[in-house]
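REVIEWER CHECKLIST
Item 1: Sequence provided? yes
Item 2: Single chain? yes
Item 3: Sequence as submitted:
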Amino acid sequence: MANVRLEDIKRRFNNVTAIENITFEIPDGEFWVLVGPSGCGKSTILRTIAGLETATSGKLYIGDRLVNNIPARQRDVAMVFQNYALYPHMSVAQNIGFGLEMRKVDRKIIQERVMNVARSLSLDHLLDRKPKQLSGGQQQRVALGRAIAREPQVFLLDEPLSNLDAQLRDDTRAELKQLHQELGITTIYVTHDQVEAMTLADKIVVLNRGRIQQIGDPQTIYASPANQMVATFLGSPPMNILPAIYQNNSFDVSGQLLAIPADVKEKLQLRQGHSYDLGIRPEHIKINTDSEQAEQQLSDNSTQNSELLLVEVKVVEPLGRETLIRAGLPGSAVMLNIQVGGDVRLRPGDRLSLQLDLNQLFVFDPKTGDRIL
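Item 4: Structure as written out by the authors:
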């Protein structure tokens, strides 16, 4: 096992910069997740660590060893791919032990290690089967087993669960976390799924357009995102963004006046007529389903500051324990995500007043996306 350190890594393809100024260090034994939208550079970073890509500039260390010019087979890392990459003509046992065979490990040691790995992954009753006789989840566990059997210094996993159905993905994700707790091997995991990132990671690296946006533990990044991209990418449903204009000591949100908390006024140097993006998470919004009261509140809100916004329900998504609502501000294209209890009955067209917890309000610069507050 080893730590992994990247120092100002850059990778260019012809005139395109895939990743730039990538610098971080993963301590020995930690589980880090690289997350971001498609094309953000996360797989390029993983492949560069594996030795499948060559950094254009910068330094890459595994342990204390500089590995820039060391070929992939000598880096002592094991990579699990999205498509499993199993040998169809080999049995499960042969697939798990293949890396050890290539290293010419003693056959008795291979058999013992294959059996131990198979037991830990609940594959011991499938050792004689071929990959085509396995389910997708079983094939993924065989690919993981092949990596584990090698006992590498570092695990690299490139979206290993994306081909699984929802229930199997949840189960395998829990198995992965338990395996890491047992093995303690430094692990780098790539995904675009923010739920996987939040549930698996000791630390998350959020990427966008080839650059690091923020590094931190899941709770810190969720509660204190560095910018609007991070705020809206992590969280399900995502954070609501409300374009607003500061005027008359309040935020004008599509014609509705939203109160500004006193501490916000103290911390911000608000400028009359200036635009801001307000962020608030769905769990920090409460609803009032009384439409007449909502209309009255809108009338009151037209002349004075309020913590309330009037919206119209557009889409209702029942999920059992809770219901997700997509609602729009009247006369505006702005939409909000709202979470309500599963017992709340709403239909498209219903008018609601929303009470926002302004102590949980984020303020972003609409030009740069940086968090102001």
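Item 5: Key structural point noted by reviewer: The CA atoms of residues 55 and 218 lie 28 Å apart.
Item 6: Recommendation: ____
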